[in-house]
Amino acid sequence: MSASADLASLRAMGRPLITTRDAAVRLGRTASAASHLLRRLADAGVIRPVRRGLWAIEPDVDPMQLVPWVTAPYPSYISLWSALHAHGMLSQIPREIHAVSVGRPRRVDTSLGVLVVHQIAPEVFGGYETSDDGVALATAGKAVFDLAYLSATHGRRFRHLPEVSLGRGYRSRDTRAWVAKIPSARLRAITRDRIEMIEKSAASVAAS
């Protein structure tokens, strides 16, 4: 089979990203042979190496599609500054892609961008919607909650809360519903205070 036929077979899988193992299974090759093929295709400029063992086989891959590949086997979704910007609530474009997961926190450098994974407790994991291209994005209210929650649990890293614009997609009651899921009364109170700070700041900016 020619390299172009191999590429067509890989793209027929319908995934924007594949692992070397995926390619080996799909093409019936050894991992070494699949890796060699993928490097050849990358050298030809028709696919792109993303990080060790991971390849973008479509020309226009949304960096946000990286998230589940990096956090697997743990579930995750885009949140915090990245989700706020996606919802039009934050004008400044984040330099990194921010996601939350029940897995361990980590920072991953890839050819598509830097992904920062923040750990969140299982009881407050959720509140996202998945698009047709597989990107799981926090709702407006959940993105605000996640920011407030992580600022309460990881204060040093979230010392400065951003000024956001709370548009029509933001519902305060949804955010408060997530606060109620926090087992610790102390952490509930701190998170609620952080949310109120964000909301008051947004109201002040909107009124000015």
Characterization of the model:
With 208 residues, the protein is an alpha+beta fold. The chain folds into two domains: 3-56, Arc Repressor Mutant, subunit A; 63-207, no CATH class. The chain contains eight helices and nine strands. It has helices at 3-11, 20-27, 31-43, 67-71, 80-86, 140-153, 172-179, 185-207; strands spanning 17-19, 48-51, 54-56, 76-78, 97-101, 106-110, 113-119, 128-130, 136-138. The strands form three sheets. The chain has a four-stranded mixed β-sheet. It has a three-stranded antiparallel β-sheet with strand order 1-3-2. The protein has a two-stranded antiparallel sheet with strand order 8-9. The mean pLDDT is 92.
Which strand order do you get reading across the main beta sheet? 4-5-7-6
| Fraction of residues in H or I helices | 40-55%
**What about the largest sheet?**
4 strands, mixed
**How many domains make up the coordinates?**
2
**Alpha carbon gyration radius:** 20 Å
Series of H and E elements: HEHHEEHEHEEEEEHHH
pLDDT average, as an integer? 92
Unreliably modeled segments: none
Taken as a percent bin, the fraction of beta residues is: 15-25%
Q: Please count the helical segments.
A: 8
Overall body shape: elongated
In total, the number of strands is: 9
Distance between the termini: 65 Å
Computed structural class: alpha+beta
